[in-house]
Amino acid sequence: MPLNSINTNVAAMQAVAAFNAINAEMAQVQMRITTGRKINSPKDNPAIWAIAQNQRGELRSLDAVKGSLQRGRSIVDVAMSAAETVSDLLNEIRALAVSAADFPLGDASRAALNDQYLALRKQIDITVANAGFNGVNLLAAGGGDRVRALANTSATSTIDVDPVDMSTGGALLAGLPADLLGGLGATSIADIKAATDRVNGAIGKLGTGAKALDNHLKFVVKQQDTLEAAIGNLVDADLARESARLQALQVRQQLALMAMQIANRQPSYLLQLFQFR
């Protein structure tokens, strides 16, 4: 192909190709600046996009794990609060039993102490019956409810907290006198103390379960933060670098426009060869 041709302007085609390439790169840089990401779709980098998308799925699954742990923690916290109230009531019951033993059977003072005792026994059952959260009660009679909080995103591991029956008819409060009107001796008062000790031991187990839930929840939150940072390392754009690239591309774009103008003027220069004086 002749170098001096008016039918085919190679220089202009090259300038247009360079201009289009610069525009395409500029559009990519502007997209990165707008979104803050260097990987916005699979066509940017299919492998990195797939890895990041998989980790986003893991991040969303950890939200479900965190929700399960928070729900379990709330259930146990409500149960512990009620159980502490039961322990306080048992301390009062023990004090009443000791006081009642000081009065003979049929004494009016003993009858008054018995009324208080029965009210406290009833309060224990009321407290236990209202120790539920979101339909789960770890202290109710029968012990049918339990906490099984998710510990991982594959749902293959759980943080377990078992129920404890703190009703007056349960095993923990076995030996608690029906009233204070019968014969009260050292054995009866010892039974009340033993019931109190069993309740306090059960509260300790609830506390251990609550601590396990808290610790694992903290771990999951840290795991989410680490995953989020890892995803950012893969797909986030360096805005300072992209800003510098944008300025360089703007200069190259202007130079490409000037090159196009020069190339488009080249055929007109050939006309001067045919000017006769």
Please report the first level of CATH classification, the CATH class of the largest domain.
Mainly Alpha
CATH architecture of the largest domain: Up-down Bundle
The CATH homologous superfamily of the largest domain: f41 fragment of flagellin, N-terminal domain
Mean pLDDT figure: 88
State the share of residues found in helices, binned by percent.
55-70%
- The gyration radius over C-alpha positions equals 40 Å
Can you walk through the features of this model?
This protein is mainly alpha-helical. It has 2 domains: 65 residues; 165 residues, f41 fragment of flagellin, N-terminal domain (Up-down Bundle). Helices cover 67% and strands 3% of the residues. It is built from 5 helices and 2 strands, in the order H-H-H-E-E-H-H. It has a two-stranded antiparallel sheet. It is rod-shaped. The two termini are 30 Å apart. The mean pLDDT is 88.
Topology:
Blueprint lengths: L9 H26 L10 H55 L7 H22 L17 E4 L7 E4 L24 H50 L3 H33 L6
Antiparallel strand pairs: 1-2
Features of this protein?
single chain; 277 residues; mainly alpha; f41 fragment of flagellin, N-terminal domain; 2 domains; 67% helix
Compact description:
The chain has 277 residues and is mostly helical.
